[in-house]
Design goal:
This protein has 66 residues and is largely without helices or strands. It is 0% helix and 9% strand.
Length: 66
């Protein structure tokens, strides 16, 4: 049996001293190979983002920015 650890995630910024934070926004620091910014398109009852074919089989992270 696989044990899963549940963690409570705070939706408040770590520090509110900096300006430009919207309520419930968080800051992420991500290291990777390349980045693409795209708009999610409607696809049935869901959303879809097309990525380059070279990315097939690669691990990606998606962060909603607005």
């Amino acid at each position: 049996m696989i044990s899963q650890k549940k963690e409570k995630i705070s939706r408040e910024p770590a520090s509110t001293e900096g300006k430009g934070y919207k309520p419930f926004s968080v800051k992420f620091e991500v290291f990777g190979e390349e980045m693409i910014e795209k708009e999610v398109k409607q696809s049935g009852n869901s959303g879809r983002v097309y990525l380059p074919p070279e990315w097939v089989g690669k691990q990606v992270k998606i962060i909603r920015i607005d």
